[in-house]
Design brief:
The protein contains four helices and 13 strands. The chain is α/β, with parallel strands linked by helices. The structure holds flavin-adenine dinucleotide (FAD).
């Protein structure tokens, strides 16, 4: 969470470690593999919907690499959390998720991340590509009564859409690029055309780093207060693991 203890030297959050055990794995959508995990202490994983954990992911060369993944759902009675892995191609993470079987173990640290709903906002703007469906879906599904949300999700086409049931006033627009994920204008155009409602908004802008940066700047140019935009690059072509800060 935002007030997590930080290590004095690196400035990085001092995240708790979780020894996760796979209990299930299945396709939650044609392009999304869901893996369900448990841990002895999973009930102590306090997170805000939209936040992520960082897996120590086995790599083809035998080492482990950091890979960020959103907590898609938690079921306290079953003592499980779920993570949705986009099948974006030949990446170590979707490959691991497709092979994961009950009893497999993996370490993760967290929770971390800025993509969470600010309760002091009158309305919420959520924007992201398919890597952000787990975050946006979890946030929409868990909005507080009375909340007002506008969500834009970019996918290749209609087959990348999922059903999202929100308990509150939420407008969801799917934007189809008609091609592979990467730098592009479809989300930028939609955000440029979005009429800001009355009151104080908060925006969560996540996805491919270059797109996120341009979308953030476009909102700021239209008068959106920069401190009311939480933005982060979730991936970018050629980038291996990690994340990009987008706060300029
Ligand atoms: C806070 C946060 C939360 C995230 N949550 C999720 C989530 O819930 N589900 C999810 O699927 N992803 C999520 N991501 C994105 C995920 O961490 C990256 O896509 C990551 O690079 C995947 O690792 P990998 O092992 O598959 O591939 P890597 O080894 O990291 O990359 C291999 C190659 O694949 C490319 N690549 C990576 N991701 C994508 C992509 N999405 N589309 C196209 N090409 C890609 C890279 O550019 C690289 O060339 C999140 C990222 C962050 C920072």
């Amino acid at each position: 969470m935002s007030d997590m203890p930080r290590t004095p030297r690196s400035g990085k959050p001092n995240l708790r470690s979780w020894d996760l055990e796979v209990v299930d794995g299945f396709d939650a959508a044609p392009n999304m593999r869901r893996v369900v995990f448990t841990a002895a202490d999973i009930g102590e994983l306090a997170y805000r919907p939209g936040q992520a954990i960082v897996f120590s992911m086995p790599l083809p060369d035998g080492a482990n690499g950091r890979r960020h993944y959103t907590i898609r759902a938690a079921d306290p009675s079953a003592r499980t959390i779920a993570v949705d892995f986009l099948k974006h191609g030949d990446g170590p993470s979707p490959n691991w998720a497709l092979r994961a079987r009950p009893g497999d173990r993996i370490e993760a640290k967290g929770p971390r991340g800025n993509a969470w709903i600010r309760l002091d906002a009158d309305w919420h703007l959520l924007a992201g590509d398919e890597t952000c469906i787990p975050a946006i879906a979890h946030m929409l599904e868990t909005l507080e009564p009375g909340a007002l949300a506008f969500a834009f999700i970019e996918t290749a086409g209609a087959d990348g859409e999922i059903a999202i049931v929100s308990p509150v006033r939420a407008e969801l627009r799917w934007l189809h690029r008609g091609g592979p994920a990467g730098p592009g204008d479809v989300m930028l155009d939609a955000l440029e055309a979005f009429a800001f409602p009355e009151g104080v908004g908060h925006a969560i802008v996540i996805g491919e780093t270059g797109n996120v940066r341009r979308q953030r700047h476009a909102l700021i140019a239209r008068g959106f207060a920069r401190e009311r935009i939480s933005s982060e690059g979730y991936w970018r072509p050629g980038r291996v693991g990690g994340h990009d800060h987008v706060d300029d």
